[in-house]
Structure formats: structure tokens, C-alpha cells
Predict the structure.
Amino acid sequence: MDMLSMREVSKSLAQDIFVRAARMEKGDFERREGVLSTLFFEASTRTKSSFLSAGLRLGLKTIDFPPERSSLSKGESFSDTIRMFDNYSDIMAIRHPREGSARLAAKIAAHPVINGGDGANEHPSQALIDLYTIKKEKKKIEGLKVALFGDLKHARAMHSLMQALALFGADMRIISPPGLEPSYGIMDRINSEFGIKLKATHTPDFSGCDVIYVVRVQEERFVDKYEAKQIKDRFRIKLADVEQAKKDVIIMHPLPKIDEITPDIDASPYAKYYAQASNAVPVRMAIMDKCLESKEGVR
Ligand code: ASP
Ligand code: CP
């Protein structure tokens, strides 16, 4: 089993992963044998390190691939690089700036591939961490009012999360700076698949919200960096904005956060992004446990 897109994760698979993740948190699991490789062709703090930590806790050995010190510098192709790591490992976590790269890797590799972010496309393991966190904090997902705030055009974490929230019946409010809406392709697809009516808005209105999910302006995906900077300076969430929402609202963020959230929010009871980041380890343990289950010979 690969994990390439949230569109390929059913509700029952997601629920299975949440049950496993809760067991991982309690230490109630069987260790696995095998080797995890992390191939990150783009910067990462959390995703790569939490996959490595999750792999080690699950009992796997790990190999990290540093692209800048590899034979890519001699001109070796992505495909050949994946073929080599398919020889060396039982499971791979991949991040790459190009959309579709994880799917290409999965076509080449016989072993499971997990998409740790492919360009502006998807980040499915992040969406599962996000849902697990919401479930833990709010005891449910269905019917919650969730505001999605920030650069929804380029943020792959948001694209996977929109699909995941629709799957679990949350009520989404889409708020972005003008021009940074999710593409109509994504919204139209979700609207027709789930029979809902997502629409883009540009005013930070959090009234009645249970969850506010914020993402930074993805500056590295802008052709014009000056445009990104101007947007960043105008679109920022303050404690007073949060106070329009329900009293027990939670604020989430996939991190890294730069300056889209004012620092006073960090110390408030609403901020759950550090708890969200710590859920990455049990959820990624659960994802790898599930992916490896379908492979004969491992355990
Ligand atoms: N860390 C997340 C990602 O790689 C979100 C972000 O970078 O803003 O997609
Ligand atoms: N949330 C996330 O993907 O963080 P990194 O970019 O640091 O991996």
C-alpha cells in the first residue's frame, strides 16, 4: 500500500489509522522489522524527522538520503535514485518540489511509498495528523465549523486537508488573500464528490468557528517574491480575530509558522499547533504500520 493522495484514503482507512495511532501512543503495538528510507528533495523539519522518529519507534532501521551529497550532483536521474532506494528499503517517505513525483516513485518502486509533500499538490500524512488532532481535541469532526485561512492556492497541506475534512463531514469556510484561493479544480471536485458548496472568501470572519486552521504564504512557490511579501504583510491573524470565534476554538497550523499568527496567540489556550506537531509521530507510525501490513515478509 502506498499513501500518495488523500483522495485515495477512504473513511474506514483513515479510521483504522486513528485507532492504530491511539495504540501507538499507549505503546500497545508489535514492533516491525525492515528499513525506512527518507528521500527529501525539499526542505523539511517535521515531516522527515518525525518519519525517522516514527520508524525507529516502530522498530525499523532508517536511511536518510541527503540529495545535495548524492550522485544527483553527477546528473543521476530521479528514477534511478528511486530504483536504488527500492533495493535498500522496505518503505520510503518522499518529498519533492515537483507535483506527481511521489506517484512516479510509487510506479517505479515495488515497496510502499508515502508522499511527504509533492510541490503544491498534496501532503496526505499531514492531513491525517490534522484530523487525528481535531478528533482528540474536539471528540468529533462531523459538523464542526472549520475556517481554512492563508495561501490556499499553493499550500499542499490545505489541499489534502480540504479533502479529508469533506470526507468526515466538517463544514469548511475558505478564507484567503485575493488570488490565493484554492484552484477551482480542487473546489469543484470536492463540491461535486461530496455534494457541498465550498466557495472562496477573502475576509477573515471566524464567527461561530470551532477550528481555525492557518497556513503561511508559501513564498517559495511565488514567481514574484515581492508579491508574496506584500501579501504576508497584509494577511495576519491576531488574538482579537480569534476572539470572534467560539470560546473553545482551537487554532491549528501545519508549521513552519513565520508571521501569519501574532506571537500572543502562541501562549493562548487556543493554540494547538505544537500538540498537532507532536501527534505526527504516532500517526506516522500508524501509517507505516498499515503500509507494511500488506507486504509479505516484513515483521
Ligand atoms: N510544512 C508544510 C508543507 O511542507 C506546510 C508549509 O510548509 O507551510 O507543506
Ligand atoms: N508540517 C510540515 O510538513 O513541516 P516540514 O515542512 O518542516 O516538514
